[in-house]
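Students often ask why we bother encoding 3D structure as a string. The short answer is that it lets us treat folding as translation between two languages. Here is a chain of 271 residues written in the first language.
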Amino acid sequence: MNKSDEKIRETVRRGYSEIAKGKSCGCCGSPSPVKLSEGIGYSNDDLQILPEGANMGLSCGNPTAVANLKPSQVVLDLGSGGGLDVFIAAKKVGPKGRVIGVDMTAEMVSKARASIPFFTEKTGLSNVEFRLGEIEHLPVADASVDVVISNCVINLSPDKQQVWREIARVLKRGGKACISDLALKKPLPERVLKSAAALVSCVAGAVPIDDTMEMARQAGLKNIQVAEKAYNVDVMADCSDPLYRQVKEFLPEGAKLSDYVVSVDVTAFKK
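And here it is in the second language, the structure alphabet:
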């Protein structure tokens, strides 16, 4: 790990720590995180079972829907935050399934763990856990997971290739990764790249989708498929979230965030 990589991790960790504590807005404030989640494809049934605070408006897609989860599966969520996708996935895999959330921010892990009793009371399920760890070094055993999901998180990593290697390591044979993230359409302005807000909101970490596909291939994954959803970026940018307001201030006059990045769903399989 070099000093530059660690500086990026610390910036991200500090930013999400503030969001977890409620000192910084990481959610769609117009009018709520629910508006954002519905805009990018979450159903009302999904959102109704969530503990308060689990949906923090940090999404750019809905990987639980893309994954087409089945009962009894073991699911791993990279960068689980307040637990939005973990709790939704847990209902889909049922009492014989299991969902693990991993996040590098202690405050996020504590926040998510505090929501487990509510989720259990609401659904009768006790099939979730949250672990503190970095997505480049997952605290998960080899070949132990059926499905890996992640929602607008891999772009935060300074070593994305290592994340994809870890995804391949923890997947069982025949397992799949369903990743929602941002991809770069054209180079971002220098001012955006240097913005901490752009980094924490995933924008500055976006890479071309061809690079992401190649990283998945290099990790040994197969049958890589990509679906673009430009609308999701417009929904995110139209929120009153201060992070995105700051990013938009750095764009050229008349430019939109969706001119530079697109929301993508990436699906890949371990042979």
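Translate back mentally: The two ends are 30 Å apart (CA to CA). Keep this in mind for the problem set.
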